[in-house]
Known about the structure:
- 51% of the residues lie in helices and 0% in strands.
- It is mainly alpha-helical.
- Residues 1-79 are annotated as: Disordered.
Amino acid sequence: xxxxxxxxxxREARYAEAQKRAASTPTRPKAPVAPAASKRVAxxxxxxxxxxGLCGHRNMSGRTCTRESGxxxxxHRYS
Length: 79
């Protein structure tokens, strides 16, 4: 056997083993996410920004927009 034949045989053996392992492992149920807690946090943030009169848009890092509520600009200013 050549070097390439050996590599092909090893690759096929690993693939067969991975397929066998995937078929035998049971699927685990996903952990439940607490939507009520995240909803409460969002409501508190919305209430705080409504009281301030600010836009309140949040970016991915959690910073909030400091422009006035309903601003006409397309961009947000975060702080």
